[in-house]
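Bug #77: duplicate submission created two jobs. Keeping one. Sequence:
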Amino acid sequence: MTSDSNPTPAALFFLFIFTLTSFKLSCCNSILCHETEKDALISFKQSLEDPFNLLSSWNNSEVDCCKWEGVFCNNLTGHVDELRLRSYHPFSGLIGKMNPSLLKLKHLRYLDLSRNKFEGKIPSFVGSLESLEYLDLSDAGFHGTIPHSIGNLSSLRTLRLQDNYVKLDVDTLEWLSSVSRLECFFMSHVNLSKAANVVQVIHKLPSLVELRLKSCLLDSVVPALNHITNVSSIAILHLSNQGFRSFDALRWIFQLRNLIFLDLSYNSLEGPIPSVSNTTKLRHIDLSFNKLNSIIPDWLYSCKDLEFVSFRYNYLQSTISSAIANLSSLNTLDLYKNEISGKIPTEIARLCKMQTLDLTRNKLQGQLSHTFGNMSDCFLEALESLRLSMNQLSGHMTDQFGEFKNLQTIDLGRNSVSGTIPINLGKLSSLRDLRLEFNKFTGNLPESVGQLSNLEMLYVNGNMLRGIVTETHFANLTKLSHFSASGNHLTLKVNPNWLPPFKLKIIKLGSWNLSVIPSWLETQKKSIMKLDLSDNGISGVVPIWFWDIPYLNLSHNQFHGEIPDLTTGTGDDWRSMYLSSNKFNGSLPRVAHTISELDLSNNSFSEGISHFLCDTTNETYGLVILRLARNKLTGELPDCWMRWPSLTVINIGNNYISGSIPNSTGLLADLLSLDLYNNKLSGQIPFSILNCTNLMKIDLSDNEFGGYLPTGIGTSIVNLRILILSSNKLNGKISSDICHLNSLQILDLSDNNFYGIIPGCVYNFTGMVTRRSLADYDTEKECYFYSPYVFQFFAESAYVSTKGNEYKYDTILSLVTNINLSNNELYGDIPEGLTWLVELGSLNLSGNHLTGLIPEGIGEMKQLESLDLSRNFLYGEIPTGLAVLSSLNYLNLSYNNLTGRIPQSTQLMGMNASSFIGNELCGLPLTSNCSDDDEVPGPMHKEEDGGGESEVDWFYLFLSLGYAVGLSFVCATLIIKKSWREAYFEFLEDMWDKVYVYVCVKWTKLVARWGRRNS
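Kept job's structure:
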């Protein structure tokens, strides 16, 4: 084509498009926001306080309001169509009332005012913003009833009215039916308890895809709708924390054909999970924090696209099916804290997309090496978190554990895994958290651990590791912040001038035989938050900087000197001090209000405790646990407990404290354990103690308390598990009120002056009927009680008299059941109800005045290990049921009126003969033999071959004749001789008088004694 030729039509078309585009861009660049909309925004700003200058760009100096912060305009028309004023700081935000000037923004499609501090109710004029497609007023400070006018927003596609402070409510949701285009509806933490038509309205929204209604109090208003139609659109559903107890009202959920995401967590759902026929597109299901006690449903394994499963904190009792192999898309399986048993199927280690596997706190068994000994390459590639702690797994870690590519967490704590720690764990370059505590690992701590450059937490405490730990073990651990290795047989050998590469927050080196405080610890003093050097034999004075560490455990060492006042610290963080079993002396230190746990037991502190308890530096103190046992403290308990309202544990046992228990003790509403044993306390047990209604343990033994057991103890302190009042001067009857203590597992009232009968209602001690195991308690090494009021565990122990001795129980205290009423003045029969306590381990009723038979039902007490009924007035035969008590290893029935044969069994024959002396018993282990009819054999029982029967007959014949002849001679003489007759009858009369007087006197004494006891 020549230079003067005309352009082609195609060239003209492209020139036209270029010119038009350039014109439009030119126009768009020159369009400013409309003046009326600019004025509306200025008015909106002026009605609000803006302390953080979030709207600082909103001023007249900037002509174009489309350039203001949070304002977005249409590029073609210049109209404001988006207003994004969400506050991203919890303490910032706009303050004031929402100005109706926003109504001038006729083209506004998007309005986000969330997380501000507006005042009053949501204004009804919001419903006049007719162009709105997106409205977010979540956590914006509004309160009261949501206006119905929002239902006028017919173009709305997303509505967010969530409120974390539950200040909003609705009286009906009928107005929502008009918003037919709604796709996303968020109304969490809004009170919907008055909206009885929630489900019906929801199913009138044909476009609804995502529904979030967390914590809306729906449990009383959602009906059971099992035949809902038009439910195919909802794909994402959140109904957590509603208080639902049954699936009956929720069956409509499982008809949602397109449901992808389901969250029903934090409810109270019980029973089996409903079967599902249509909901097979699920990718995410969360039923955690409920009360489900069924099995994992089979339909779950048919959801091919399932990616996330969480049933944590339930009571599921099933096994994990090998059908889990069907869930090829699964990336998260969370079954934390259930009762799932059986073995972990090997198929789980071949899921190629699995990133998080959490089976913590279940009852899983089997060999770890069996399940994770042949893992697929894709599983090794994908997995990021493996948590299997608090199960019953055994076996060993295979070398394949060192082949994970992206693993960040290994938690195998509190199992029975044995063997050595694989050396190739040092290859896990992504590992951040390695927890192997409380297992049975042996061998050395591998030096390769020192190559884990991303490792932050290393827990190997409570194993059987041995060997030397050197600088090499920490060579590249620059990110390490938690190191816990107590309770092994490790020895630390590092250069005295060693500078660690890390800054530790937690250091636990208990039982490392350190003998001295490592010098390198001082390099950590700016970061350290927890330090445990317990049981190391360290002597000397505690470094001054130790007293500022928030958690300090120096127990079971040889530290000496006085402890300075603990009134300073690192800010307002709670602090704990464990300094027991050392050689500290002097007076008790004063403490700061931030110290929550203080254990100074088993030292040599002296003087009184008034200056400690009555310190006026602070009005109240935050101490939760106070242990001062086994010191040399003197004086009285001052009446200052009102300053310590948070106390849950008090142990001042084994000191020289005198006086009485002050009434202010009754002000300790959260008190769970009170130990004042082995002091010199006297007076009566105060009734004010009944105000401590949360008490679980009371031990006031070995004092001089008198008077009666406080009336109402059974109805006021209903959670009591341990009641030990032995070796005092208490008297009166044991009231049946005590039978209300259903949780009681240790009752010791021995060595007092209680009289009367044993209450027959003791069968109400259901704590001695229920089988228990250590697995039932969420315990660490010595933890026993759990406080629902302070949300923590605390260590507990008790001295229990059983098997003729006194034993200290701590780690297994939760399993101990004991009744000891010995050495009192109790009488009457042994109540049959005692034999109903089939989990009772020890029963001691010795040294009383009990009568009657030993209950036959005692043979049903299969867990009985110790039985002492000695020094009573029991009679009859020993029940045969005792012979089958296989757990019985201590028995004392001595000094009663028992008769007959000792039941024959290996168990009883192995008892000491002293257990049966002082009775009329025969048979092993005693030396006296028994005849077939339980009587000592005489000569008439002897038989000889031939003529035996004839000789026995002649013997009786001659004996009878002799008796008749003699009697006839006596009678004839008395008839003939008058003097003999008179002397004989005078003798009979004299004997009758003596017997009559003796019997009457004895009877009178018995009646008088009975009368005194019953008065």
